[in-house]
Design brief:
Length: 426
């Protein structure tokens, strides 16, 4: 995926020009009210998300964005063109491919008022844009919420809808997406468990690996460690009971007795009997099962690593609460206060805002992403503002963050990444 390298905008506020380069990690636009920060952020969001309504209401003539990924480059050029019809049009050029779309308030109006070819073109442009830039837009203060933006079951509608609290709507949407992500990795973890079980069954069959012996000496075994590892293997399969634990103890005891007998007979130069060596195949198979179990456990931990990092990060911000996984909870997550479950709607506005920001980050799943936010400090405590960008970078070190802010706390730790609006406008 590509990141933003630079942007040039002709006709910014109708008669000005804007030009700026971007760092590939953190970019912080600052300036007084009315300096153009939000306008710039809105234009970037409008282009990358192909938001026709926002392009319609924004003042610009042409926007030129250069993208880069390693040594590869792409370009996006967006320009307005007047028309004799009620609606003006926008020309979108992605590298060498050009598209023309009507500037319409929303996708629903596009489907209703124009021929199907425009809607098909719109979907093509959206798909192409998404294929080159993974993009997250982190403003939650939107009055209109489109059907595609809000996927909470029971609220789906064919019309744009007005909700009294867009933050709650965004939070519910993200909780559903987190639940789906959790279900996805849980399904992958279950597949790993199934594969482990198959490998265990295969190890029961005859194999030179397990059923041939070298009698130069008795094998050396840490029986206590082997016993614990076998307990862990059966625990991973969710089958370890007190009865099975006794079976494991007996299993280890037989192997231990066999090796002791072999060692004694080697010492006394006595001949070995068949029954003396048969448990050695059990030892080899036990070690193989333990190896498979450890490998499976490492892979499972890798699947849940990002989600657990998210929980650790959010809980570090919430000292009086605890967010944790719970497959029985509505969203696969639950939040506790004084060990009592509470509804996510009971979070403060700042807690909701922070949860939204960090949840959006974790759902990027560590991929190369462009991460845009307008005034992310709103409702956040000063101490949270200081830690916010670093927390986002911890959750996704490959994200390119572009924010507009009034907060000196957010900008303070990133002084070399500050861009003053007065220096990019002419």
């Amino acid at each position: 995926m590509y990141k933003l390298n630079s942007v040039e905008i002709d006709g910014f506020w109708k008669n000005q020009k804007l030009s700026t380069n971007f760092k590939d990690n953190v970019n912080i636009f600052i300036g007084p009210n009315g300096s153009g920060k939000t306008t710039l952020i809105n234009l970037l969001q409008a282009v990358l998300s192909v938001d026709l309504g926002l392009l319609q209401t924004s003042d610009f003539k042409e926007i030129r964005i250069k993208l880069s990924e390693n040594n590869k480059t792409r370009s996006i050029v967006v320009s307005k063109s007047e028309s004799d019809s009620v609606y003006d049009f926008v020309n979108i050029k992605i590298s060498r491919e050009s598209f023309k779309l009507p500037l319409i308030p929303n996708e629903t109006e596009l489907r209703r008022r124009f021929s199907p070819k425009y809607y098909e073109t719109f979907k093509i442009v959206k798909t192409k844009m998404a294929s080159i830039v993974q993009f997250s837009w982190l403003s939650v203060y939107r009055e209109l919420i489109e059907e595609e933006d809000f996927e909470y079951p029971g609220y789906r509608t064919r019309r744009p809808m007005r909700l009294p609290n867009p933050i709650d709507a965004r939070l519910l949407s993200l909780l559903n997406r987190l639940r789906d992500y959790h279900l996805k990795i849980q399904s992958e973890a279950n597949e790993l468990s199934t594969k482990f079980q198959k490998q265990v069954l295969i190890s029961l069959l005859y194999s030179d690996q397990f059923d041939t012996y070298n009698f130069d000496s008795a094998p050396e075994v840490n029986f206590q460690e082997l016993q614990e590892q076998l307990y862990n293997a059966y625990t991973a399969l969710n089958v370890l009971t007190s009865g099975l634990r006794k079976k494991v103890d007996e299993h280890i005891s037989i192997i231990k007795k066999s090796i002791s007998t072999i060692a004694e007979k080697f010492k006394n130069q006595e001949n070995l009997m068949v029954n003396d060596v048969l448990p050695l195949s059990l030892l080899k198979r036990t070690r193989r099962i333990v190896e498979l179990s450890n490998d499976t456990d490492i892979l499972k931990k890798g699947l849940f690593e990002l989600l657990n990092l998210f929980l650790n990060t959010i809980n570090d911000f919430f000292p009086d609460k605890n967010v944790k996984l719970n497959s029985k909870a509505e969203y696969g997550l639950e939040i506790l206060k004084n060990n009592v479950p509470i509804n996510f709607g009971q979070l403060s506005s700042g807690e909701k805002q922070l949860f939204i920001l960090l949840a959006e980050t974790v759902l990027q799943q560590g991929k190369n992403s462009v991460f845009i936010a307008d005034e992310p400090e709103l409702s956040l405590h000063v101490s949270w503002q200081k830690r916010l960008l670093r927390a986002i970078r911890v959750l996704n070190s490959d994200s390119q963050i572009i924010v507009a802010t009034h907060s000196p706390e957010i900008a303070g730790a990133w002084r070399d990444h500050i861009i003053k609006m007065s220096e990019v406008l002419s």
